[in-house]
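Workshop exercise sheet. Pairs work together: one partner reads the sequence aloud, the other fills in the structure field after running the prediction. Swap roles for the next sheet.
Pair: D.N. / O.F.
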Amino acid sequence: MTTMTDALTTQVYQVFIKATPEQVWEAITTPEFTARYFHGARIEAAEDKYVSHGPNGDLWGDAEVFDWDPPRRLVHGWRSLYDEEMAKEETSRVSWEIEPADGGLCRLTVVHDRLEGAPKTAASVSGPGWMFVLSGLKTLLETGEPLTA
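Structure field:
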């Protein structure tokens, strides 16, 4: 499900994944996992910093972590440093909510907001942008294999 309001300033995505909250948390916070589904990005998330490096080691993003509650909630800033124009935009925010559901499932809700000052970033991540990442995450956790594009 995708909800876009006010010219893409708030984007909401939900997916059910057959995995534990701990597995989902590990997959979104460790570079060994993220490199397999997040466009090759090696993302390291910790209590105070969210850092992303591209496959060649280039800095793709760095931002503050606002909320760190493993394995339930991660909220961090988002800066798209891999693109010169997007790098000039204001920092937006991404929230990951992990909720256990019946049948060994988790509901993962991702909200990307505070995009008013980042219209190029908003357009870049909307719709297929986040959905490809979340589909890749789901596929990797459920099958052990990355999603091929």
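Discussion prompt: The beta strands are 2-5, 10-17, 42-45, 49-53, 59-69, 73-78, 92-101, 105-113. What would you look at next?
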